[in-house]
Amino acid sequence: MTSFSAARIAIIGLGYVGLPLAVEFGKKQNVVGFDINSKRVEELSSGVDKTLEVDSSELRNATGLRFSTDVSDLASCNTFIVTVPTPIDKANRPDLTPLTSASKTVGKVLKKGDVVIYESTVYPGCTEEICVPILEQESGLKFNQDFFCGYSPERINPGDKVNTLTKIKKITSGSNAETAKYVNELYSSIITAGTYKASSIKVAEAAKVIENSQRDLNIAFVNELSVLFERLDIDTIEVLEAAGSKWNFLPFRPGMVGGHCIGVDPYYLTHKAEAVGYNPQIILAGRRLNDNMARYVARNLIKRMLKNGIDVSKSTIGVLGITFKENCPDIRNSKVVDLVRELESWGAKVVVADPMAEPDEVKHEYGFALGNVNAECKVDSLVVAVGHDMYRSLSIPELRTFCKSATPVLADVKSLYNKEDAIAAGFTVFRL
Predict the structure, then answer these.
(1) Where are the domains of the chain?
(2) CATH class of the domain defined by 224-430
(3) Is 261 labeled as catalytic in the residue annotation?
(4) Catalytic residue among 126, 131, 149, 261
(5) pLDDT per residue over 248-283, tens digit each?
(6) What is the pLDDT of residues 121-150, one digit of tens each?
(7) What is the CATH code for 4-205?
(8) Model confidence at 3, in pLDDT bands (50, 70, 90)?
């Protein structure tokens, strides 16, 4: 196996996870940043990151980093870090296509002594059961004899400019003791927060997949509370703030849980559970509840519009925000789309606005064009679905100018605004 001082690194996949990693390593040594998306590579080569995770000055400071779509540029590397997406399909089953494709690419250039490290979120056992056989088949080499593997799960939080890559403790692992030491040293060279060396690849894989499953379940609990408290005519946020006065109460808030992590990772865990003959109860219950929250919001909005005498089939509803979280352009697995589809099923015209999102990407991914919702482009009722800073800064009087109806409904999904002020301005308010 190669020594730490002789590491020649390639990052496979330059998205939200791979790019920050490539930049940090590129500040210290020569690194090849590889991606099959030629447009992405061209943009990064010109100093532009459309994910907004890395600014142009950071790209310039990574003097050792070069970008490529050419597999032959990987041949000189001896350490490959795979950071491709691991999505789910329409049936909520793991889609390992990007992972297996990346493994085939690496396998074609793998040499004796090389190390392949995976960061993509997977179920326990996936690296050694799925990826390693592909590496062996493509390279003709023997695992843990000719080449070695590690797993160091990504902990990137898109849009977070405080808890960035180097400031989050990194789990590391290897296929044997020597590899585990190598992988740990490699990440220790850039992660100032330190590392945690897991006892095995499986343990590291499991640790990652339960991180987001835990958050998913906690959010599902407060979402269920929100449904219950709405029927009891109690404001959920007021209850949570009151309960939060105790030091050990966990500060979770209700919401529509989408994105590439919390809305996806639990299905990787349940897939593996079912594969070994265990039928998971709590994890799937949380997923079912969270997956239905967008429709729940839409139906509560519709109910209030009808009560206010608004003809839904002739109305226009404005939706502010399409990304899966605030201050981030990532639209993957956005639950706002489910909300839009539900509103459209009632015959309403829905106008979605979001300056953070890429219009072409939204059109390609979800089939509708972004529009405008403002004082010039008025709507009958309004959903503020994402907590972008630009929306948080809007005043209630400004929001009111967006609505042409005399009795508009405001669905404040993220509880950004003062409820009493909104009611005083003439809104009927719904919030989780």
Answers:
(1) 4-205, 224-430
(2) alpha beta
(3) yes
(4) 261
(5) 999 999 999 877 788 889 999 999 999 999 999 999
(6) 999 999 999 999 999 999 999 999 999 999
(7) 3.40.50.720
(8) low
